[in-house]
């Protein structure tokens, strides 16, 4: 069954936001209570962009929906994928679903990352459950023929919920051996590296932002002038990325996480303070974001 979108959403995202009853087609479990869920959601798949998310009813008995970033979308086959880590009852219930179960889903929601090409060198930084939008963005850039390919840096303290292997792509800017990479991205020719303080084999031992600092420190002034950062992850990581952007004078887009009730712009429950050219303003993370310029939301970092 497909319904029309709620009125509040229709006014902000007319014609691109859908409510679908989406059958589960696959649910894969990874260590650390992490799951990748694939849903048959043809309309959402067609309109998803990097940084957009769904608002999912995890179970009929749980009234509040949960926001989850879209990690992959295949418009031809009509599916979307999300990656989640169980926090509380909503996602625990979601983890118990089986192929064929139907979940009511609103999406794709939000203003995602904008790749404008003014700065062709791009560094994508993802932390924890902030990794999925970075995967989407990297693969989207590749499909759109963006050159050079992005560099993707990912940090996690849980085992990475992806097939990892030793990279064959050089990273001379690293001062320690850290060859682990996500196989799917490497196979696409996207250089990527992993960071963790948990001692995973082949991962850089440190914060993902330390890894980013190594890379940025290896660039010439001319290369830095061509570089832009994109990030999604915990707020403390986004603040550190924002500091790096300031230090190296780089534009930087960040995707924020906020508590969400309606997720379609109607309740203002997700509003954050943003610096605009006309002074401070309150913006709704769900429909005005979740992606913002780092300099506008972390003015002091
Ligand atoms: C735009 C957006 C995209 C997101 N994408 C992902 C994703 O791809 N994968 C993923 O695993 N998680 C993602 N999250 C976070 C996820 O929505 C929350 O962790 C989830 O709602 C928790 O649900 P739960 O039922 O497991 O726990 P609940 O019982 O609902 O919550 C347990 C605790 O989690 C925290 N929490 C709940 N909701 C949020 C929230 N919206 N933001 C921050 N903390 C929260 C609170 O401390 C709460 O007490 C995203 C959040 C947003 C806003
Ligand atoms: S969650 Fe209601 S306006 Fe954003």
Distance between the termini: 46 Å
Number of strands: 19
By CATH, the topology of the largest domain is: Rossmann fold
In the CATH hierarchy, the architecture of the largest domain is: 3-Layer(aba) Sandwich
CATH class of the largest domain: Alpha Beta
Form type: globular
Which small-molecule species are bound to the chains here? flavin-adenine dinucleotide, FE2/S2 (inorganic) cluster
Major β-sheet profile: 8 strands, antiparallel
Features:
single chain, 301 residues, alpha/beta, Elongation Factor Tu (Ef-tu), domain 3, eight-stranded antiparallel β-sheet, 9 helices, globular, binds flavin-adenine dinucleotide, binds FE2/S2 (inorganic) cluster
Describe the structure.
The protein is α/β, with parallel strands linked by helices and 301 residues long. It folds into 2 domains: 2-109, Translation factors (Elongation Factor Tu (Ef-tu), domain 3); 121-297, Rossmann fold (3-Layer(aba) Sandwich). It has 9 helices and 19 strands. The strands form 4 sheets. Strands 1, 2, 3, 4, 5, 6, 7 and 8 form an 8-stranded antiparallel sheet that branches. A 7-stranded mixed sheet has the order 14-13-10-9-15-16-19, sandwiched between helices. Strands 11-12 form a two-stranded antiparallel sheet. A hairpin with a 2-residue loop joins strand 17 and strand 18 (279-284). The structure holds flavin-adenine dinucleotide and FE2/S2 (inorganic) cluster (FES). Flavin-adenine dinucleotide binds at residues 53, 66-69, 82-91, 129, 132, 257-260, 290.
